[in-house]
């Protein structure tokens, strides 16, 4: 089983790309942070990312989703990973928790993810949502933190430049469809 991480700046178009990959028959595993935020906001908590337990809740859901993902095909594509959560903790000015450190150690030791990471570049804008309250300038800073985090953990970033969804999906498919890549 080859597991690829798809990551990048908030608002870079990851969700649209992942939907297309799913339509092409690839197993896609959803991002955890957005779900954690949506659940908390549904219960009346406006900014759950400010809570000390937020990062650990994201880590826990990421682990559940990674372990629960079916092995139906030869490739899975993950919308973010615990390395993204590491970048998020840094971006939020939060300490890297024991749970996050342990999860990074587990997925590294078990070689869960391919060393090539699909890095979706920003589109030149970032539309805010209820869960994504970040300016375009802030998203560029966050993009850089993601890049630095993945490189620090020894990953090779495969740049997927801004463009239309079909071109981006084709670029990704060229990487993930290769046997043994």
Walkthrough of the structure:
- By secondary structure, the protein is α/β, with parallel strands linked by helices.
- The protein has one domain (2-176): P-loop containing nucleotide triphosphate hydrolases (Rossmann fold, 3-Layer(aba) Sandwich), CATH 3.40.50.
- It has seven helices and five strands, in the order E-H-E-H-H-E-H-H-E-H-E-H.
- It has helices at 14-23, 33-42, 54-68, 82-92, 98-109, 136-152, 165-176; strands spanning 2-8, 27-29, 75-79, 116-120, 156-160.
- Strands 2-3-1-4-5 form a five-stranded parallel β-sheet, sandwiched between helices.
- It is globular and about 40 Å long.
- The N and C termini lie close together (11 Å).
- The mean pLDDT is 91.
> Widest sheet: strand order?
2-3-1-4-5
Number of domains: 1
Helix content: 40-55%
End-to-end separation in angstroms reads 11 Å
CATH topology descriptor: Rossmann fold
CATH superfamily: P-loop containing nucleotide triphosphate hydrolases
What is the CATH class?
Alpha Beta
CATH architecture: 3-Layer(aba) Sandwich
Beta-strand proportion:
5-15%
Count of separate DSSP helical elements: 7
Query: Spans with pLDDT under 50 lasting ≥5 residues?
Result: none
3D shape: globular
List SSEs in N-to-C order. EHEHHEHHEHEH
Radius of gyration: 15 Å
Q: Supply the helix-strand structural class.
A: alpha/beta
Largest sheet: 5 strands, parallel
How many strands?
A: 5
What is the residue-mean pLDDT, rounded to a whole number? 91
């Amino acid at each position: 089983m080859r597991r690829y991480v798809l990551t990048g700046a908030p608002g870079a178009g990851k969700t649209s790309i992942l939907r297309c990959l799913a339509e092409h028959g690839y197993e896609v595993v959803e991002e955890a942070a957005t779900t954690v935020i949506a659940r908390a906001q549904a219960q009346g908590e406006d900014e759950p990312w400010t809570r000390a337990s937020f990062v650990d809740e994201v880590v826990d859901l990421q682990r559940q989703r990674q372990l629960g993902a079916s092995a139906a095909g030869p490739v899975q594509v993950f919308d973010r990973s615990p390395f993204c959560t590491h970048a998020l903790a840094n971006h939020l000015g939060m300490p890297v928790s024991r749970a996050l450190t342990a999860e990074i150690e587990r997925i590294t030791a078990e070689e869960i993810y391919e060393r090539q990471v699909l890095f979706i570049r920003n589109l030149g804008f970032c539309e805010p949502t209820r869960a994504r309250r970040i300016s375009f300038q802030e998203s560029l800073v966050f993009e850089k933190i993601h890049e630095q985090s993945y490189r620090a953990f020894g990953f090779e970033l495969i740049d997927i430049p801004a463009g239309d969804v079909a071109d981006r999906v084709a670029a990704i498919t060229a990487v993930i469809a290769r046997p043994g890549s």
